[in-house]
Amino acid sequence: MDELVQLLIPPILGAFIGYITNYLAIKMLFRPYEEKRIFGVKIPFTPGLIPKRRKEIAISLAKTIEKHLFTPEKLHKLFEESGYKERLQKRIEIVLDQLIDDIMEDIRDTIKSGISLGKINIKTTLIATALEKALEKLSENLKEKLKEKLLEKASDNIEKNIEEELPQILSQLNVEKMVVDTLMEMDIQTLEEIVIGFSEKQLKHITYTGAVLGFLIGLLQSILYLLH
After folding, report:
1. Would you write out the chain's pLDDT as a tens digit for each of its 228 residues?
2. Residue 222 to residue 10: CA distance in whole angstroms
3. What is the pTM for the complete model shown?
4. Rounded to 5 degrees, what are φ and ψ at 180?
5. Environment class of residue 218 by beta-carbon count within 10 Å: exposed (0-12), middle (13-18) or buried (19+)?
6. How many helices, marked H, and strands, marked E, lie in the chain?
7. Chain centre distance of CA 73
């Protein structure tokens, strides 16, 4: 019985040590949040790795985000997939409808005003009415053709402007500074909750892996002990 206990102690102890060391290693990524001192002497490994190198990590992460995520190509694709262009075209179409209607109304008012003042050599009401109806029909055809041409031109300009303006917009946004400032202003505990939160399952696997490896090493020691 005592011999069995002696054989079981190394793998159990190895599993415990493996679990604890991996658990502490993960915790020490963030903990402690601040530098600790005893009698004015800094305690090693304080603060945790991420709080200690927070600025470097923030800059590195910001550069990665700016280089690989905020590119003109990706933003252009985002514009395309978001339907922004189509929504903008619809708004332009509404504005064009209103603009063309206003222009046509001004033309009709000018003709009516000319008839009433005798500036246009049309004296009969019948001719005036016929002219107004012809103008109404003409305005509808003209409106559709004019709107089609203007929309086509506007669409081309929207596409061209997006492609030309995106690099300038990105340079003005200064994504790197924005990300760095956000990470530096964020409470370190909140940052820890975010990182640990989305990687909790993977971190648990790392902890359990430490226990398994510790157990196997201990088991190997027991086997070697038996062989001797």
Report:
1. 567 777 788 889 999 999 999 999 988 888 888 888 888 888 888 888 889 888 898 899 888 888 888 777 777 777 777 777 777 778 877 887 788 778 777 776 766 665 554 444 444 455 556 666 666 666 666 677 777 777 777 766 766 776 677 777 777 778 888 888 988 888 888 888 888 887 888 888 999 999 999 999 999 988 888 776
2. 7
3. 0.57
4. -60, -45
5. buried
6. 9, 2
7. 14
